[in-house]
Write a structure and sequence with these properties.
It is a single chain. By secondary structure, the chain is mostly helical. It folds into two domains: 71 residues, no CATH class; 74 residues, Arc Repressor Mutant, subunit A. The protein is built from eight helices and no strands. α1 packs antiparallel against α2, α2 packs across α3 and α4 packs across α5. The termini are far apart.
């Protein structure tokens, strides 16, 4: 049976952190709906682990970051990357390198690079993410710089 203190602590944390968490997730995910879904999932995981979470706020934010990583891992599995490798006549080892490079990027950069790779324009990406074209361009420039730093030379 849950104690009143546990419920009130989680409720207070929700009131304090929910809007900030959704805002944080919105900057890292393609849509507001994805951000709201992941925020809800983070709070649900906190609720389920409330008895062992020593620092509920820290647990919540770490969970949210992990959920973003999971979101993008599921969005682009290695099998799909291998299919792209064959479709674009690129050796699989280059596909594995591309996956490694994508893992080095923060979520919006990864999303933007993948979308450009399959042929979406900056405008289409911006509309999908509900951000400006300028924000997408900045994201792509930073992603390309990071790829070059990692020893890859992206074509775009």
């Amino acid at each position: 049976m849950e104690g009143v203190a546990e419920v009130s602590v989680i409720a207070a944390l929700y009131a304090k952190e929910h809007a900030r968490l959704v805002s944080y997730l919105r900057r890292r995910l393609p849509t507001l709906e994805d951000a709201e879904d992941l925020a809800q999932a983070a709070f649900l995981r906190l609720w389920r682990k409330r008895e062992i979470a020593r620092n509920p706020s820290g647990y919540l934010w770490r969970t949210a970051r992990n959920l973003v990583a999971d979101f993008y891992r599921q969005a682009m599995p290695l099998a799909e990357l291998a299919e792209w490798s064959v479709a674009y006549d690129t050796p699989l080892d280059a596909g594995v390198m591309a996956e490694w490079a994508l893992d080095q990027l923060i979520a919006p950069q990864r999303y933007d690079m993948m979308a450009r790779f399959v042929g979406y324009s900056q405008r289409e990406i911006a509309e999908a993410r509900d951000v400006t074209v300028w924000a997408v361009n900045v994201s792509l420039v930073r992603a390309r710089a990071r790829a070059r730093k990692a020893g890859l030379s992206p074509s775009e």
